[in-house]
Amino acid sequence: MKRRIMALLLAGAMVLGMTACGGSGGSTGGSTGGSTGSSSDMADKKVGISIYKFDDNFMTLYRTELERYLVEDLGFSASNITIMDGKGDQAEQTNQIQNFIASGVDVMILNLVQSSSAPSVTDMCNEAGIPVVYINREPDPAEEERWASEGIKATYVGADARQSGTYQGEEIVETANKGDINGDGKVSYIMVQGDPENVDAQYRTEFSVKALTDAGIEVEELLLQRGDWDQAKGQQIVQDALTQFGDSVEVVFCNNDAMALGALQAIEAAGRKVNEDIYLVGVDALVQNVVDGRMTGTVFNDHFGQAQAAADAAVKFLKGEAVDPVNMVDYVKVTTENAAEILEKVK
Ligand code: GAL
């Protein structure tokens, strides 16, 4: 199990490290136990997949694994899998879903542009008799309860972002000076937020800071700004913040690693040094940067585990088996300390 996580962390780091702008990278993440089994009876099943936008690092890693796992491990035929780019436009994505219905797909795996559209999308699919697996952007809990109470074939596969936020905060608490680099008795931070259409943005923001205050640390928020999960926006926000607040910035929290990558560029351009005069944490898979000491920490967002759980749920629906309405995959905390260990073991 440990070995598997290590392989995952490294593969994720390699792909993200290579594709700063969301190119599609091949991954070789191994299959796991826990799948519903390879099924040749899946070969003629049609799967409709729509990703909120292709130009997203993490969802590119996810999409790559999802397709690989469906074909290589579960026996779907690549020609029966259609993956659409939602292009960040819900109207466009809704059209894609209508086309999936018209073309008679057997199951859909949807990463909604707007999670608030889940009730209407669910109804559309349900009326057409097509089960839906939602991924990455969690619908409202009331909607999830409705699936269970009305026996609707819909489910959500994701990760509890409260956990990732808490890990980010703990990574700062675990530094030698607990984030208080200038010793003024409080941790002054900037928060670069993801697109709030994903509740991950809200939870990571809230719980990262909560981990500090829970540890009795006083905090000061210098700036909180939306970077929409985007590297270029992350860079701009941090560049401006460093100009405005200078040395008083002790911690940069980014809701994801793409923005942390942008933040790192701004930090290095400003002549600051991560882990010496500033801390930087993200979430997703930039383990290599942690190993290199260019980030204080990250939290591995297990796109392998999530992609496989989503595909397994789709298979269960196709086989007429019951699926829980909510399925969460754990995050993994990655600090300078254990990232180095991981590198050693796989060398
Ligand atoms: C988050 C992930 C982000 C971004 C977002 C898209 O879970 O950490 O990098 O991909 O999902 O909704």
| Assembly status | single chain
Can you tell me the CATH topology of the largest domain? Rossmann fold
Order of helices and strands: HEHEHEHEHEHEHEHEHEHEHEEH
Shape: elongated
Question: What is the name of the CATH class of the largest domain?
Answer: Alpha Beta
What's this model, at a glance?
The protein is an alpha/beta fold and 347 residues long. The chain has twelve helices and twelve strands.
Tell me what you see in this structure.
Strand 3, helix 4 (118-127) and strand 4 (132-135) form a beta-alpha-beta unit. This protein has 2 domains: 2-159 and 302-330, Response regulator (Rossmann fold); 161-300, 3-Layer(aba) Sandwich (Rossmann fold), CATH 3.40.50.2300. The chain is of the alpha/beta class. The radius of gyration is 20 Å and the shape is elongated. Helices cover 45% and strands 16% of the residues. The chain has helices at 2-18, 57-73, 90-102, 118-127, 141-150, 161-173, 199-214, 231-245, 257-269, 287-291, 303-318, 336-346; strands at residues 47-51, 81-85, 107-110, 132-135, 154-158, 187-193, 219-226, 251-254, 279-281, 297-300, 326-328, 332-335. A 6-stranded parallel sheet has the order 2-1-3-4-5-11, with helices on both faces. The protein has a 4-stranded parallel sheet with strand order 7-6-8-9, sandwiched between helices. It has 12 helices and 12 strands. Residues 52, 56, 58-59, 136-137, 194, 198, 200, 229, 256, 258, 283-284, 301 line the site of beta-D-galactopyranose. Beta-D-galactopyranose is lined by residues 52, 56, 58-59, 136-137, 194, 198, 200, 229, 256, 258, 283-284, 301.
